Amino acid sequence: MNIILLGPPGAGKGTxxxxxxxxxxIPQVSTGDIIRAAIKKQTPRGLEFKTYTDAGALVPxxxxxxxxxDRLTEPDCASGFLLDGFPRTVVQAKWLDGMLEARGRSISHxxxxxxxxxxxxxxxxxxxxxxxxxxxxxxxxxxxxTPEIAARLIHRRDDTADVLxxxxxxxxxxxxxxxxxxxxxxxxxRVDGFGPVDDVKRRIxxxxxxxx
Length: 212
Description:
By secondary structure, the protein is an alpha/beta fold. Helix content is 51%, strand content 14%. The chain has a domain at 2-26 and 79-116 and 175-208: Rossmann fold (3-Layer(aba) Sandwich), CATH 3.40.50. Strands 2-3-1-4-7 form a five-stranded parallel sheet, sandwiched between helices. β5 and β6 (136-138) form a beta hairpin. α2 packs across α4 (61-72). The protein is globular and about 50 Å long.
């Protein structure tokens, strides 16, 4: 199953991606992870990417496409994948369709986690990263299970209302147009992202099993 996960920043995509990939036995493919790995390994494309980021320049789509294509053709993606953070624009979505079609593949589902901006603000300012496990907890929606874990949580500097407003504006301007694109293709599945994490997990499971 080849899945794209969409949603605004703070919608809980990371938590749900972890649950989906565990449930289906497919890898999570994050463009951020791909780029960081390529730079760390000093691959030719990774070094090229670094020249743009170091200069504060816009990275060409062609380079991002090449990194994504390399990752999706690795053996662990043969039985499926979950894309998180890509595509971000309709141009990237069209390229992805063509690249997969050339390999006899296609997207199975595009899951859109729907959450109001006001709820996202509450989520962002209350979350913290466990540096030991990498899990992101929330004081209200997904509290840490023990005081020890709660004490070591790290709260990111950009988890503020001002930074979130900028990120939401960018999402609505650039990424939200993907919604009608995939809706017209009959692939979009809306999932209510409000409420406890486990409730959202069940809604996503229902969609993937054909019940939603």
